[in-house]
Predict the structure.
Amino acid sequence: MICPNCKADIDLDEEELDEGDPVTCDECGAELSVASTNPVELEVATEDDEDEDEDEEDFDEDGEDEDEFEEEEEKDDEWS
Protein backbone atom coordinates (compact mmCIF):
# COMPACT_ATOMS: atom_id res chain seq x y z
CA MET A 1 0.00 0.00 0.00
CA ILE A 2 1.05 3.59 -0.61
CA CYS A 3 0.58 6.37 1.94
CA PRO A 4 -1.70 9.01 0.40
CA ASN A 5 0.11 11.67 2.43
CA CYS A 6 3.83 11.03 1.70
CA LYS A 7 3.69 8.25 -0.94
CA ALA A 8 5.80 5.90 1.22
CA ASP A 9 5.24 2.16 0.97
CA ILE A 10 3.17 0.79 3.89
CA ASP A 11 3.38 -2.95 4.57
CA LEU A 12 -0.12 -4.22 5.42
CA ASP A 13 -1.81 -7.62 5.38
CA GLU A 14 -4.58 -6.64 2.99
CA GLU A 15 -6.62 -9.77 3.78
CA GLU A 16 -6.91 -8.73 7.45
CA LEU A 17 -8.15 -5.18 6.81
CA ASP A 18 -11.70 -3.98 7.28
CA GLU A 19 -13.18 -0.72 6.07
CA GLY A 20 -12.59 2.04 8.63
CA ASP A 21 -9.59 0.34 10.27
CA PRO A 22 -7.01 2.84 11.51
CA VAL A 23 -3.52 2.74 9.98
CA THR A 24 -0.47 4.86 10.79
CA CYS A 25 2.25 5.60 8.27
CA ASP A 26 5.66 4.75 9.74
CA GLU A 27 7.38 7.33 7.50
CA CYS A 28 5.34 10.49 8.08
CA GLY A 29 3.19 9.46 11.06
CA ALA A 30 -0.05 10.26 9.22
CA GLU A 31 -3.23 8.90 10.75
CA LEU A 32 -4.93 6.95 7.96
CA SER A 33 -8.00 4.78 7.63
CA VAL A 34 -9.04 2.04 5.23
CA ALA A 35 -11.39 3.68 2.73
CA SER A 36 -12.28 0.45 0.93
CA THR A 37 -11.24 -3.18 0.95
CA ASN A 38 -11.82 -4.15 -2.68
CA PRO A 39 -9.53 -2.74 -3.90
CA VAL A 40 -7.78 -1.74 -0.69
CA GLU A 41 -7.49 2.04 -0.52
CA LEU A 42 -6.21 4.26 2.26
CA GLU A 43 -7.27 7.82 3.05
CA VAL A 44 -6.03 10.42 5.49
CA ALA A 45 -8.23 10.16 8.58
CA THR A 46 -10.30 13.28 9.01
CA GLU A 47 -10.45 15.27 12.22
CA ASP A 48 -14.23 14.74 12.14
CA ASP A 49 -13.66 11.09 13.11
CA GLU A 50 -11.72 12.19 16.18
CA ASP A 51 -14.24 14.93 17.00
CA GLU A 52 -17.09 12.39 16.97
CA ASP A 53 -15.28 10.27 19.54
CA GLU A 54 -14.69 13.30 21.77
CA ASP A 55 -18.30 14.46 21.39
CA GLU A 56 -19.61 11.06 22.50
CA GLU A 57 -17.57 11.33 25.72
CA ASP A 58 -19.25 14.64 26.63
CA PHE A 59 -22.71 13.07 26.81
CA ASP A 60 -24.12 11.01 29.65
CA GLU A 61 -26.22 7.85 29.24
CA ASP A 62 -29.35 9.89 28.48
CA GLY A 63 -27.59 11.67 25.63
CA GLU A 64 -27.55 14.96 27.53
CA ASP A 65 -24.48 17.14 27.50
CA GLU A 66 -23.02 16.84 31.01
CA ASP A 67 -21.17 20.18 30.79
CA GLU A 68 -24.35 21.99 29.79
CA PHE A 69 -26.23 20.47 32.75
CA GLU A 70 -23.54 21.67 35.17
CA GLU A 71 -23.77 25.19 33.75
CA GLU A 72 -27.56 25.20 34.23
CA GLU A 73 -27.12 24.07 37.85
CA GLU A 74 -24.73 26.96 38.47
CA LYS A 75 -27.23 29.44 37.03
CA ASP A 76 -29.98 28.00 39.22
CA ASP A 77 -27.77 28.44 42.28
CA GLU A 78 -27.16 32.09 41.40
CA TRP A 79 -30.91 32.81 41.33
CA SER A 80 -31.56 31.09 44.69
